[in-house]
Design goal:
This protein is mainly α. Helix content is 76%, strand content 0%. The protein starts with 10 loop residues before the first helix and ends with a helix.
Length: 220
């Protein structure tokens, strides 16, 4: 006699589970968007979703698992986790990235202002930093390590959610204007970096010629 337990599953049951999971994630996103200073907890999300606390824990046993699901859903709207790693792609990304921030402004502000949102964004910071470092490599080839870090810091600051928020909420730029301002700033800085690079190369050549002559004279 076969006594092994049988698992029961049906398309309806699976759909119900998925719907419940989505309700939990949507409640978390609403919390972040509407009340970013509110504690991000299983208890608060269960209350907002109208779901039993044990059900929230069944779907998301830990805070990191819940944050991962919320980040994945928010990224499907904002697409912030794609980091261009060439100069051309970086410049081309400014307008569409800022357009999505404009289109989902409450969610974007919630991600910037809530502890949960900051925690989610910190997880991706090193990948974002590395991609931008690769994008800036040609323009910063003439700089030392400290100079490269400085340029990277400036670009990370001006092409960011924080910059978008400052331009929209403090400088009162209208929809579309933060993208144009940011792209202008980035292109201006890149142009100056390439001018400095040419000057540095000419200086290097100028100093190299006397050194070569002295070396030849010493050999003679």
């Amino acid at each position: 006699m076969n006594t092994e337990p049988r698992s029961y599953s049906s398309p309806l049951r699976q759909q119900q589970m998925e719907d419940t999971r989505q309700r939990i994630v949507e409640a978390a996103l609403t919390l972040i968007s509407e009340q970013p200073q509110e504690a991000f907890s299983h208890e608060e999300i269960a209350r907002r979703a109208g779901i039993a606390l044990r059900t929230v824990y069944r779907h998301f046993p830990s805070r990191p698992e819940l944050l991962d699901a919320v980040w994945k859903t928010s990224d499907s709207q904002l697409e912030l986790s794609h980091y261009p790693d060439t100069e051309a792609d970086m410049l081309a990304a400014v307008e569409p990235v800022y357009a999505r921030m404009d289109a989902h402004a409450p969610l974007m502000r919630g991600l910037l202002r809530s502890n949960a949102g900051q925690e989610m964004r910190r997880r991706d910071n090193e990948r974002r930093r590395a991609a931008m470092e690769r994008a800036l490599a040609p323009a910063t080839a003439h700089l030392d390590a400290a100079g490269k870090r400085g340029v990277l810091g400036i670009f990370q600051s001006i092409f960011s959610g924080r910059a978008w928020e400052t331009m929209r909420d403090r400088a009162h730029l209208q929809e579309g204007e933060p993208a144009r301002a940011t792209e202008w700033a980035m292109r201006t800085l890149l142009a100056q970096l390439y001018r400095d690079q040419k000057v540095s190369a000419r200086e290097g050549q100028r100093h190299a010629k006397p050194a070569a002559k002295r070396a030849a004279k010493n050999k003679a």
